[in-house]
TrEMBL record:
GO terms under biological process: protein ubiquitination
InterPro entries (UniProt xref): RCC1/BLIP-II, Reg_chr_condens, Ub_ligase/GEF_domain
Residue spans of the RCC repeats: 1-42, 43-94, 95-130
Name listed for the protein in its UniProt record: Uncharacterized protein
GO MF annotations in UniProt: ubiquitin protein ligase activity
The keyword Repeat is assigned to this record: yes
PROSITE patterns linked to this entry: RCC1_3
SUPFAM superfamilies in the record: RCC1/BLIP-II (SSF50985)
PANTHER family: E3 UBIQUITIN-PROTEIN LIGASE HERC2, REGULATOR OF CHROMOSOME CONDENSATION
Length: 130
């Protein structure tokens, strides 16, 4: 899903109208995971694409064909994002690390193998960040 609505292929660059008013400073894409994250200049995180394993962070496993803000991160200033094959992560201005998505083999760092459908605090704050 390209974030423009629907599942059609597009051969030319296309404006994401649903977030054209938002200044995006970073995009994280995992083509194998079929999902994208975008970080706004205000620190909000948007996600879209396939939602298997909860990797979009919207609290469900439903795909999203347009960028949608991750509500559980609203009000938290996010400074970096990452998209893995079946999971996602972000770091906040306070140095906190959140992870969500497929938890198999403990990949989210929460001490279990549970899937997380919303961002869950992993470390507060990350000790090795300046």
């Amino acid at each position: 899903m390209l974030g423009i609505g629907g599942t059609e292929s597009v051969s030319t660059p296309t404006l994401l109208e649903s977030i054209q008013h938002v200044f995006i400073k970073k995009v994280a894409v995992n083509s194998g995971g079929k999902h994208c994250l975008a970080l706004s200049s205000e620190g909000e995180v948007y996600s879209w694409g396939e939602a298997e394993d909860g990797k979009l962070g919207h609290g469900n496993r439903s795909p999203c064909d347009r960028p949608r803000v991750i509500e559980s991160l609203r009000g938290i200033e996010v400074v970096d994002i990452a998209a893995g094959g079946a999971h996602s992560a972000c770091i906040t201005a306070a140095g906190d690390l959140y992870t969500w998505g497929k938890g198999r083999y403990g990949r989210l760092g929460h001490g279990d193998s549970e899937d997380q459908l919303k961002p869950k605090l992993f470390i507060k704050p990350i000790p090795w960040l300046p």
